Every structure is written in structure tokens, then in C-alpha cells.
User: Fold these one by one.
Assistant:
Number 1:
Amino acid sequence: MANSCKTTEPNRSFIIGKGGGFTGKYEVFLVQSNGEVFKVVNEQPSSTMEVKIDKKQISEVFREFDQLNIPGVNFSYPGNMTYFVRCTENNKTHEIKWGSPNVAPPQNFIVFFDKTWSLIRKK
């Protein structure tokens, strides 16, 4: 599944998700720069669009996504419930993940996740 961290690519995307806990299940979505969001199952996006985020909101999401600088950050502290944002650049996958009770993630990770998640789940 191709998703891109690069700011110069016209069709950019990233993966966002959360899960674990008692069931071990994850809820994962592919967010594209055109505002289309697809559920990801078994590492593959579904063919049915979950939601369409409007142009102004998706621009803001990708501006904030760029500020996370995922390729330049090494933050992997999963927990019982794990939250993550993932992208691919030059065929290399970059991911930030958190949930460990022992390591607090940077506030901008939480704010970005919560804001983006609420746009996806608003339907």
C-alpha cells in the first residue's frame, strides 16, 4: 500500500489507526490528500470510501501532518492500547506510535490524532 510523507507529491496519504486492548483489534484508515478516507483491512485499503473530508479541513490536516515530521522522528512506545500514524517515503515506512503508560507522547501527536480521528469518525 503506497502512502507518502512527501510534501511535493500531488496524491499524498498517510495511515492512522488505534487498537489493541482486550480484543487486540485495530481500527485503521488511509487518509488521502484529496479528502478521501478508506478503511484498511489486512494492510489493504477497502474499495469503498468511508468518508470525504472537505477541502479546507484536509488541507489543515496535511499541514499539521507535515509538522509532525514523521520521517525525522523516532518515537515507538506501544502500549496495551496503541495509537499510530504511518507514512512511506522512498519505499521506506515511517511510523510514530504510542500508548505506553511509561512514556508520554509529544502533545502535538495527540492533538493531531484526536483531530484527524474525529473528522474520520464524524459520520
Note: Residues 87 and 93 are 6 Å apart (CA to CA).
Number 2:
Amino acid sequence: MYPGKSNGLPFSKLLHPRFLTPALCRPALVLAFILCFSAPSYGDCDITLRWDDDSPYFMVQEGKVVGIDADLVREAIGRLNCGLSFQKMPWARALRELRDGHVDMLSGAYRTPEREEYAHYSDVVGLVSPNILFIRRSDESRFELNGLRQLLESGFRLGAQIHVSYSDEYSALIQNPDYEKNIQYLSRRESLWKMLARNRVDGVVASRLTGLYEIQALGLSGTTTPSSMVVSNKPAFFVFSKASVSSEFVADFDRVLQAMLDDGTFAAIVNRYVCGTGDSWLAEAQAGMGACPLAMR
């Protein structure tokens, strides 16, 4: 876990009058000035990052956790000279663990007032993959896709993950029993895709990029498709536990992440998993959406 401190003596100790004899006063002040403006060091810390099977953000290749978010965090934490460990767990449990300080960091979190009570949010947003409603291809003309409220009022059966906030509208609707009765909750999205294929729900909300990866992996791309309905275009953030990580560390993480955007490292990591892969299904998904099915910022 992250201990909440950087390395080195506090300046109050460094400048204690006991050490400041006339001969040492000026050198000590110069040293303190240098240390004050040098880059932070977090060499004694270890950040725990939650992950789960969520291509292309997290996946396992040759026994190693990789993917867009895994590689971005690995690079940023490495630049801070900090260790990184991965803990696999479902989203609902991860939020509890973050709140209690048992895991230090999550990725892909939308900003909500409840989460802001126990989590620091990163201020740097590098990419956005919108949340899209996925439906069966055979139902493309069956429903009026004017919004979640209208869909649920029509009896549409929506598949959703437990404690996932897809949009502000969704978060408001689930507080109303009249709408929530048409929502089927499960902890894992793979089960929701299978329910959609078996006609047990009528639609599933997911990040466009994640959904395209997952339905391809499950062999469902012939029967399942992203609809024209964008549920949310809001950015998702890296978040840190207030119980285990200091706001100073988060600020340093943001500076490193911004530097990765500026020097091209961020884009190179995203392109590693998304753009220019040559996968035919991905090329089809990108049609009409520009170079990639997610937006770099």
C-alpha cells in the first residue's frame, strides 16, 4: 500500500536551529532550496491498482497484466519511482476496497458526489470512449432510441453491472422503482452479453471500445451491435483512495500523466492496443468514427 509520504527529511528537521551553526547556516539553506524544487521521490511506496478482465484496458498476455490502463499506470508510477501491484476484483467490491483504503487506485471511474467523499480524482483526461447501448442486430428497428427514460418506460429490459454509473440520467433513474424494475443487475459484463444473446435482456450499456472487444471475443459480433444511442460521453478518471494516498501524490501523478500526453507516450500506449492493429472487425467498427473508436484529448 502507499504509505502517504515521500522520501527524505522534512524541511523542519533540516532547518532545525540545532543544526544551523554560523558555518553551516548558508550551506543548509542552499541545500533546502535545492530539495524544495527537485522532483518528488516515492521510492518507498507501492501502489495497488484494481483490475479485472476488461479489454483493451486490462487483459493478461503471457502471464502479465497489460492493456491501455495497465500500461499507462505502469509507466506513470515508474516515472515516480514507485512500485505497482495489481489486485483483481469486480467493480462493486473495488469501490468498497478503495473507500476503506485496501486498494489504492482504480481506473475508469466516473465522477459522482458519493465517490468524491472517499476518492481523490485525477484531473488529467487523455481519452474518452463513450458509453453506448448495445442491442441485438435483429432489434435495430424495434425500439425508439431516444433516451434511457423512454426506453425503460416502453418495457425495455436493460442489463447493467452492479454499482456502475453509466451516466447522470442512469443514476437518477435507478432511484425510481418504476424504472429499476426493468433493469437486470449482474456483477460481470460477460454474463450480460450472454443474456442479451439469449433474449433475456434487450440491451447492455458498455464503453464502445470495451463492448466491441468483448462481443468479438465471445463470438457475438454477428448478432450484437452498438446502437446509435450514446448513453454518456463523460470522461472517466483515475481515482485514488483518500484513506491511503495523499493529495500531493495525486498531484504528482497528474503532472507525470500530463507529461506523457505531451511527449507522445500516452498516444503510443493507446495505439498499441487500438489503432493500426489490422484487425478486420476493429476496422469495421471504426468506419465513420475517424482514426480510432475513442477520442484522444
Note: The chain has two domains: 46-126+235-280, 131-232.
Number 3:
Amino acid sequence: MNVLEMQKGVQQKLNAMEIPIISEDVLWYLNRAQEQYIADQYVFLRGKYTDNQDIQLYTNAQKAMENLRTILSTEEITGTPNLSDSPFYNNAKVVDLTTLTGTFYYYVRSQSKDDATPANLINNRLVEQENIQKYIQTKYNNPIFRDNLVVIEGTNLLVFYDNQTDAGVSSVYLTYIKEPKILSRTTDSDTETTTCQLPSHTHREIVNLATQLARQDRKDEVSRTQRQNFEG
């Protein structure tokens, strides 16, 4: 479906519910729905990498990967300024996420490659930023961990390695979700060709979600008005 078809789809559903809406607001709801849809699918996708023993989680993750395949990207990051030593942590490399070919939206998974011959691939495990003190190598802390650890800090991805990784980190393979293009019209005529960047089989779901969001906002607006009239 192109953007015009998605827009008309939402308007038709809302008209059937007798909910008035202007076309500009429909586009706003479509973009909001696209963001929520990606966020919901990301939860399923990450389930695969947190508990792959659960068959249902794995199945949901496979479906989510198909639903997001057009905005999934894997890149090898190597060499400055893309990959550099951290100026603050002795045992960390810094991946500059702004140098990726797509705009970084969500982290999916990553691996590190060391400088050994032959090179070894080491799994990276995403951890919370609040736990970063546990992984910093200092005079009094010499952490050892099975996998390299990654922390998202602003526009950087920090890759922590322990002193057992003698060859360090020479490159990082990063799989991430790219920020999707905003849904917008390029013409007011029926010749619109701009399409949603997500796979075509997801477009109807986004239309339905946009309709639900607009309907819920309308219900909330009516409830507020009734409450104000009652209190007034």
C-alpha cells in the first residue's frame, strides 16, 4: 500500500465509526502507529536473544524478523572514527553509531572480532548502562566475563572486553534496526507513489493500529469533555 492508500484506509474506518478527522491528523496517527508497531515487534525480536530455549519466544522472534526485515541491517564497524579506544575506560572500544549507513533505531545483536591469527568471533551481550561500573578495568577491579559486554551510551556503543582478550577488538559486527522513513505525501493527487518502508504485509496492521490509536484518543477526549461538563 502507498501512503495515500493507507491514509484512505484509516479515514474509511474512522468514518464508519462516525469519528471526524482531517487528512493531516491521519498521517500523524499513521506515523505514531508505525513507531509503535516497530517497538512491539522489537520486543518479540529481542526475545530470541534473551531466552532461545522458549519455543514460543523463538517463533515470535522469527515472525518479527520477517516483519522488520526491510529495516534490519548488519554492518562491520572497523577503524577510526567508526571504532576507537575509549578515552574513559581501559578495557572498552567505542562504536560511533552516527557513522552507520542507516540511522540507528534499536540494537538487535553484535559480535566482536579480535586481532588474533586466525581471528576469533566473540559474542557480545547487551547490559544495562547502570551496571557499567562492574565492567570497568581499574587498579582494584579486574573483571572477567565469558562474552564481551556492550552498553549503549548516547550515540555510542561501548564494547567491554576483559584482560583474557589479549588480542583486543579489531572490529564489531552490529545488527540493528534502522529508523524508518516518515510517512508523508509528496502529492495531493491520486498519483502518490510513496510507500511505507516496512514489508507490504505489515501495512494493513499499521492502518488498523492507527485507527485504534485515533479511536482511543477520541474516546479519551469525549470522556474529558463529559467530566468537565459534570464538574462545571
Note: The first strand starts at residue 72 and ends at 78.
Number 4:
Amino acid sequence: MITRTIRRATRAVTAAARFRRLITMLPLWLAPTLLLVSIVGTALVARSAGAPAPAMSATPSTPPARIVSLAPSVTETLFALGAGPRVVAVSDYCDYPPEVAALPKIGSFLSPNVEAIVALRPDVVIGTPSPGNVEAVTALRRLGIRVEIDDPEHLSDLPRVTRMIASAAGVPEDGERLVNAIEDEIEAVRTRVAGAPLRRVLMVVGHDPLVAVGQTSFLGELLAGARAVNVAPAPAVWPHLNLEFVIAADPEIVIDSSMGSEDGASATRFWERFPSLAAVRAGNVHAFRSYRVLRPGPRLPAAFADLARLIHPERWS
């Protein structure tokens, strides 16, 4: 029975690997969009593909000694909770804190390696929903392995998911402390920009086509919290824009999170072709590639502060 279950899961992982290869064949602009959808927590793709539903189980009387994390945001939260020493494996994308570099990798959140996870004998596996991990998660549960899956769709969901991870790790009190710390830090940023003039902002995650951060996305909520007027049209989560729309909207600030914008040169070259834009005239085109903002976890307040600083630098003078 166990062997058959692992074989079925292996076939699922193979299918997920094909899905991952397909992603690598897509145009480059889709890479940041996929990361934003899958990691930030909109989870639109995951849910439409029938991602595994949460399966909250009773918290064991003894904290789990062996924890496997399937996502970077989960890993960062576990370490912030003080549960890092009990994490025995992480996903391929987990790179923070530095200690995780020495831990075994069990595949990506798109295609976790069931055999590798089973071999580690985990007490609990904690992850986020994705299109590729449905059958793998189902297989682990059939084998009697406790799996907890959840993902914040909105900023207001972050406390709930943090508490879920803390409960799964057997440290609910530490979870409450972390939730309070995150909320206090986010509120400190809001307080810092309170009363600042609203500024028209366009945040993009791709150039060809031009893909923007929508008002209802996780990042869109952060923009609103930073006293920005998101010029991207509602209600699309990741609206595709034409240049005529951008010129008409005339954003005062452009935040460019597209691929290749890490050093700012690519973003500058792209936007300087539109000298009529207020953001270009004022030199307010900013490259912003922060993985912290893609991971709804304990470092999100710092990423929120980085974003707010780009919009209202005078509040940090």
C-alpha cells in the first residue's frame, strides 16, 4: 500500500516537473508574475487548479521534533518562532535565514519530492497551496503524515497563517508574540506615512507585455497602506496595460519589479523612453526586486518599509 501510494505520488511529481519545465519555456516576463501569484499568496492559480485544502489537525501534546517546510515564507516563520533547530528539510527556494543552506532540499513548492520527505520521517509537513503539489500532499496524508497547508490571500490573513504555522510547530504562544510583533512593525510604517500626500504610483512586474500590480493583490494592499494611489485599473489582480493607459494615468512614481531590474539599469532604460511621464521627469523610477515582499512572513514589515520609503522618502529624512 505504501509503495503504491509513493508510486502514485512520484507520477504526480513527474507531471509537476513537466509543469515546471513548461514555466521555464514561457516568456521571461511571466517569471515574476508566477512568483507573485504563487508565493505572495493570491493563490489564484493554485486554487483554480484544485490545490490541497487545509487540513487542520489537533495540536499534539508534544511539539513535533522533525518539521519539513515546503515554502520560503513557512521556513522564515518557523525560524522566527524559534523552531529552526527542529526543521529537518526545506524547499529548493528557501534561502533565509542563512542556516537553511545546510539543510536538505526536498523539491519546490510546485513539486515536492514525496520519497525524500517520507525518508526524513517528519512529524509534520507545512506548506502553501500550489498547482503542482496536490497529489503529493494527498499521498503524504494517505501515508499518515500530518500536512498543514494554508496561504494568506490578503494582508489581513497573515496573522491567521502565522498562528497556523506556530500551532503546527507546537509553539502557539510564540506565534502570538510573532503576530503582535509583525502587526506592530506594520503599524509603525503606517504611522510614519500617516497624513502624507497621496501619490499616484504604478508598480509593474513585467515589461512585455506590461503587467502591473493590481489594487486587490497582496502587493496592492501594501501600496495602499503606504499612502499610494495605485493607478492600475481595478478589479484585475495583475492587469495588462498598454502604454497609452500609462501615459494617460501619468504616475508620479514607477516601481519596477520586472526581471532584470535588480541593478536599476534595465528599469531606467525602459522608462526613459517615456519622458512625458511625471515619474520619469522627476527621477522617480525605482527598481524594486525584494524577495522579502514576495514572502508573507516575519520580514514583510521590513519590505513594507522599503516600499513606503520609495513612495514617501521625506518621511525617512
Note: The first strand starts at residue 67 and ends at 69.
